[in-house]
Amino acid sequence: MPIPLYGVFGASGCGRGIMPLLRAQLHGKANADQIVFIDDAPPASQLNGHAVLTWAEFLARPASERSVALAIANSSIREALAQRCQEAGVSLLAVQAANVVQMDDITLGEGALLSPFVTLTSNIRIGRCFHANLYSYVEHDCIIGDFVTFAPGVKCNGNVHIEDHAYIGTGAVIKQGTPAKPLVIGRGAVVGMGAVVTKSVPAGVTVVGNPARPLVK
Q1: What is the pLDDT of residues 7-43, one digit of tens each?
Q2: What is the per-residue DSSP string for 2-44?
Q3: Which residues form the active site (predicted)?
Q4: Residue 184's closest CA among 203, 168, 206, 210?
Q5: Residue 216 covered by a domain
Q6: Alpha carbons 140 and 151: distance in angstroms, whole number
Q7: 121 plus 186 within the same structural domain
Q8: Which residues of 148-165 are buried (b: 16+ CB within 10 A; e: fewer)?
Q9: Which range of residues forms the domain containing residue 139?
């Protein structure tokens, strides 16, 4: 009899960090054979106790339903994979650590991946396929778009708007905005590792340093 099949797309670093969270989340609901890695170029046939399948192999396995966590850091690839899933009738799977803190009035889009020690406080709106890595937080009254990535230790303070496909690097700090004038990180912008963002960042711009300034190439 077909049974549900769960996949973590990406057998590299990000996926290997999400797999044990998914396994814990499904404890008592699925066995190891129902939980697999998916990779377009599988590095091995088995990894950390789970089969590694190509996308075609994942779709070919008998299953009553299929769902996938998109553990790919590159947001453009993540969006393309989300489209691939939609076309194949595969649902996006949200995964979060047991110790994630969600406080009050939080909306999370489908496919969010929340690593250990992530905190979301209150009155927050987050789009599709958000990645929040270890020890990141989002403070009150923030709006975060689709396919946004937080590397470990990101500190996003209140009244911040982060547009689609932005990438916030490890240890970055985003200063609090105000209700009348939120601090905005534009679409596709990159905030470098350890940067301290004190003012809005235009779309597509990379900023680095303390205070953060546009990267001069």
Answers
A1: 999 998 899 999 999 999 999 899 999 999 999 999 8
A2: ---EEEEE--SHHHHHHHHHHHHHTTTT--GGGEEEE-SS-S-
A3: 140
A4: 203
A5: no
A6: 19
A7: yes
A8: bbbbbbbbbbbbbbbbbb
A9: 96-207
Report the SS3 class of residue 47.
Answer: strand
Helix (H) or strand (E) segment spanning residue 206: strand 206-208
Classify residue 178 by its DSSP letter.
-
CATH of residue 17: 3.40.50.20
Pair 101, 195 in one domain: yes
Per the CB < 8 A criterion, the answer to whether 95 and 18 are in contact is yes
Asked if residue 164 and residue 184 are part of one domain, the reply reads: yes
pTM score: 0.95
Spatial distance between the Cα atoms of 60 and 126, rounded to a whole number of angstroms: 33
Residue 54 to residues 9, 30, 37, 80, 177, Cα–Cα distance (Å) = 9, 20, 8, 16, 44
- Our count of domains for the chain comes to 2
